[in-house]
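Schema walk-through. Below, the input block comes first and the output block second. Nothing else is stored per chain. Lengths vary across the set, and this one has 342 residues.
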Amino acid sequence: MGKVIKTYVRRSENIILKVIDNESFEFSAPKQFSRTFTAEELGRKNWKSIKHFSKYGKAIINKRGKFIVKNHTVSDNAVTTLEMLPLPAPNVVIRRKNDLIRYETTFFVAKNGILVSMKQAALSEKGVGIAGVNLSGKERKIVQGVRDLLGRKVLNNPILFNRVVDLEENIDNQTYDAKMPPEAALAEALIRLPLPIFWASVHAFMATLMPFLNEDAKAFYYPALRLSEEESTKQAQYSHLRDVLGDFCFARDASSNTIRLPELTLQDADSIATLKIITGLPVLAQIDRDAVQKGVTEMMQQAHCEIVATGFAKHPFRTIPLLIGERLPADNAIFAFDWDVF
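--- output ---
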């Protein structure tokens, strides 16, 4: 049985990776994840490991007598039946720079597939946290009871995902094999690149270098891109801009290949606080509220006043946010580029 458990734990990590995908967890941590898989989507080896552990779990549950398992249904000794077998899976621990995020994980196994449920432990209801399926109180007791019977076998092997990114190391790793193309090919590529995209790319590179620059070398303005007033054209422009910036090596983590291109809608003080903690990454930040644009404008204008008065000022942010939206900051705080035609 030891081999069955070890294989199940190892294959659980493969399945969980499919669920969290390229989530970086760098600026936020989702409260929960859930996803369904057919047996074909899981792959033969993953599905086989679940079937073997299910067989092992059924024998233990039926032997204890508290619940009755038949096929993939679990019943208590009263009238409550859960038509899926809830198998405990290893807890997931996400390591970030300043904290750890823990998720309780359960695989709800049906005849030809599973539901993966992951929920932050601190936000769980009484008992195990469940995501992706609505259950009654008695059904939740069945899930908790099965977890108590089988959990000891798998919960002592948590799965750790490291989402801590060292900016300098990441740049080195991502650009180690990069080679400068011939000058003629580079010139041709730049000529073909739409000017707004080239302009945004330059500022994206500048944002990447922000943690390594002295204060007097930083750009004390916000790059602001005015998109088309026509809605469909605006959406096409934004999608193109996001795709280009997201493909740059510095917008990905070399170790996990997670996308690290934050997109923010600045609506209140909390969203501005989030922008302040982003370091060395390009950010697409949309501003559509007068109160927010006034606050962002005042931050840069205050820096300008400090430079005039003392010759020195600290930049408001640790990145260079690329601003878009209907309420851009005042003209003396931005370097604007108009992108009227796509």
